[in-house]
From TrEMBL:
<keyword id="KW-0687">Ribonucleoprotein</keyword>
<dbReference type="InterPro" id="IPR002136">
    <property type="entry name" value="Ribosomal_uL4"/>
</dbReference>
<dbReference type="GO" id="GO:0006412">
    <property type="term" value="P:translation"/>
</dbReference>
<dbReference type="Pfam" id="PF00573">
    <property type="entry name" value="Ribosomal_L4"/>
</dbReference>
<dbReference type="InterPro" id="IPR023574">
    <property type="entry name" value="Ribosomal_uL4_dom_sf"/>
</dbReference>
<dbReference type="InterPro" id="IPR013005">
    <property type="entry name" value="Ribosomal_uL4-like"/>
</dbReference>
<feature type="region of interest" description="Disordered">
    <location>
        <begin position="62"/>
        <end position="85"/>
    </location>
</feature>
<comment type="function">
    <text>One of the primary rRNA binding proteins, this protein initially binds near the 5'-end of the 23S rRNA. It is important during the early stages of 50S assembly. It makes multiple contacts with different domains of the 23S rRNA in the assembled 50S subunit and ribosome.</text>
</comment>
<dbReference type="GO" id="GO:0003735">
    <property type="term" value="F:structural constituent of ribosome"/>
</dbReference>
<comment type="similarity">
    <text>Belongs to the universal ribosomal protein uL4 family.</text>
</comment>
<dbReference type="GO" id="GO:0019843">
    <property type="term" value="F:rRNA binding"/>
</dbReference>
<comment type="function">
    <text>Forms part of the polypeptide exit tunnel.</text>
</comment>
<keyword id="KW-0694">RNA-binding</keyword>
<keyword id="KW-0689">Ribosomal protein</keyword>
<comment type="subunit">
    <text>Part of the 50S ribosomal subunit.</text>
</comment>
<keyword id="KW-0699">rRNA-binding</keyword>
<protein>
    <recommendedName>
        <fullName>Large ribosomal subunit protein uL4</fullName>
    </recommendedName>
</protein>
Length: 206
């Protein structure tokens, strides 16, 4: 697949060939779903917690005598059926992450990139650099390129001026190539790759 390389001024700056083994796969929603679920589960803090009856502060004295009251038998007031008692089977602090093999994770990224390629939602930029961090400059560039919701992936090092200017724009993410991931690729309408990012992707999947 061949795409035009554009500048921030929406001018043509050559063309590139996208490798078919990365950008021309038939997208599999099952693999993409597994990867997104894996990523979101890994992000969960897992810090939700309720106190069980053994963690409630209170006396363990028996409430009243076993027989002769006409009521049910009870021990202390820390049991779940009383107000202020412990929670039965409540959530505990835990890690929600689950495993997914390295090959499946790599394949999921290829399918995510192929999804964007087949939808015609990939733009290749010559470079993502600015002489000064001006948000208005980036907004004007996005308007020329027809971008409203985007993930911009640059090389190993981000241009500080561009990153600072773009972070004020809603629905815009800027990542270095090592941070590219399936969830962020799919959640934005347009994927913008710089030439250095594209070279790094080709080297990664070579």
């Amino acid at each position: 697949m061949k795409l035009d390389v554009q500048t921030l001024d929406a001018k043509k700056a050559g063309s590139v060939d996208l490798p078919d083994d990365v950008f021309a796969l038939k997208p599999r929603t099952d693999i993409l779903h597994r990867m997104v679920t894996y990523q979101l589960a890994k992000r969960r803090a897992g810090t939700h917690k309720t106190k069980g009856r053994s963690e409630i502060a209170g006396t363990t004295k028996k409430m009243y005598k076993q027989k002769g009251t006409g009521g049910a038998r009870h021990g202390n007031k820390k049991v779940p059926q009383f107000r202020g008692g412990g929670k039965a089977f409540g959530p505990v602090v835990r890690d929600h992450a689950h495993g997914l093999t390295k090959k499946v994770r790599a394949l999921a990224l290829r399918h995510a990139l192929s999804t964007k390629a087949q939808a015609g939602s990939i733009i290749v930029l010559d470079e993502a650099k600015l002489p000064e961090p001006k948000t208005k400059v980036v907004k004007d560039a996005f308007a020329k390129l027809g971008i409203t919701s985007t993930l911009i992936v640059d090389g190993a090092e981000l241009d500080d001026n561009f990153a600072l200017a773009a972070r004020n724009i809603p629905h815009t993410d800027v990542l270095p190539i090592q941070g590219i991931n399936v969830y962020d690729v799919l959640r934005r309408d347009t994927l913008v790759l710089t030439k250095s990012a594209l070279e790094a992707l080709e080297a990664r999947f070579a």
